[in-house]
Amino acid sequence: MSGTTTAIAGFAAMLLLIGLRMPVGLAMLFTGSVGYVSFVGMAPFLSYVKSTPYHLFADYTLSVIPLFILMGAFAERSGLSTDLFRAAARAFGRRKGGLSMAVIGASAAFGAICGSSVATTATFSRAALPELRRYGYDPGFAGATVAVGGTLGILIPPSVILVVYAIATEQNIVKMFQAALIPGLIAACFYCLVANWVARRDPAAGPAIESASVGGSWRGVWPALAVGVVVVGGIYGGVFTPTEGAAVGAAAMLLIGLARRTLGLAEIRTSLLQTAETTGMIFLILLGAEVFNSFLALSRLPTELAETIAALGYSPLAILGMLLAVYIVLGSVMDELAMILLTLPVFFPVVSALDFGLPAEEVAIWFGILVLIVVGVGLVAPPIGLNVFVVSALAKDVSIISIYRRVLPFLAMDIIRLSLVMAFPALALVLVRLLN
Amino acid sequence: MAVEGGDDNGTRGGPWLLSTLAENLALAGGIIIVAAAFLVCASVGLRWMTSNSIPGDFELVQIAVALSAFAFLPFCQLRRGNIAVGTFTGALPERVRASLDALWDLIYAAAAAFIAWRLAAGAAETIANQTTTMVSGIPIGWAIAATSAMAALLAVAAVATAVQLIRRPG
After folding, report:
1. Residues 350-389 of A with CB under 8 A from B
2. Distance CA A130, CA A146 (A)
3. Where are the alpha helices (DSSP H) in chain B?
4. Does ipTM surpass 0.95 in this model?
């Protein structure tokens, strides 16, 4: 078998195993190992495994992942989301659909502290959903706002999945963070518009409320928001590296939680275990991806595929559109993080070989933002929108179907936003250009 | 595996001793990450005041990430935290799905045991060569040895989850 055939066989075997419920990280590790041995034999593989698992993880850049997860876990456990929501509800509540807008605004702010969209969704399912329903919001509409609000954390820095993209494609994390901000804020504004539009058309779904009755204030939330601003601003301005920002953020969130007396020993313990589980999950996939990518690199499949596709002569935008469509399909059945690490070794060289009239680094950054927008779509789109499942699991009487029905207008807005960023790469790149 | 500890074999996260061990290891890993966070903060603070950071701080962070990564994995396995795609097997009978999962657990156990064995070899070599980190001179071999031991615990945890799936009635 030629190298390319072996690689394709390896890919097919891996997808089959994943389809048969093998954990994604293990499937990559397993097929990658078999493929590696088939190319270079057992002895080089034995010495590869002697050092790789340690040295892959003994990496300064990688420490950003557990640190941001820890920061988010502390923020989640210290009840910050409730305060953020109450404060936002006081500001927006008197508008039609105002409480939904408050959820979106609070989720965006929380996304600046917590890097995980599922965590954001879970915390607002607990903190905001019961309040929305108490004020007579349609349960499906309320659930949909929490689910789409959760996706904002993917783009708004710090975002764990953004860090993973940067590490996988060897891009500068700081520049990725800069590029993601404007598309993330656009998303928040678009979602607010949709929430307001829905509530105007169907006033019973999202009635305006008496703002003062929520009883929130900004006093409780500003320290945590300040931490978010200092961390992200400090990283943008080069005051500290992403790892340093994450460390400062995690330590500060712990101290704020202690000072507010909302983080006790039990909550700290839960935060640590939550960090352990999420980080362990991500690191197993990183290890699998490392081995699988070494196998793919030996096969030369990515380079050959990139050359073949570039030689076909389709317009670069059409190819980009096709790749993003593949992500939408994959995202409907697969976890987003695994999907990114699975496809990037093949897709990234393809995109890099296309000519968009931009420098290579800008193409890489822009593509990353597009992929993350699509990932956000995958988190709420039928049939498997993880965020929708999280909401429905935490609010047992709100059916998945009723949430999906209300998610649709938000999804339409996502497609518009995706097209905008595709048509105008500057939306992602302008901040990178200004700050560097 | 012999049934020990009386009636406790119904525990979700594997045998009691194993789940306690994995949970405490995960907590230790979390504490290492918290410690790394404060170390980096101290280093940033020191850099602002004296324009010198703590020498070798990044080496400590590197070791901390590697140690905590392996400390998290057994706990993650016992909690079934590793993501898998259930879309295409939803129609299969419960028993078949459980057997598939048990099979993957056993493969995971074999992979972890293999990694533990190779890391042990790597650790022995590194200790013999007395390789240390560049700035602070920490011997890396012992850190690799610790990750090898934790990979071995991961293998045990994966076997335990497989046994649990096979034993479970229905």
Report:
1. 383-384
2. 11
3. 16-50, 57-78, 94-129, 140-167
4. no
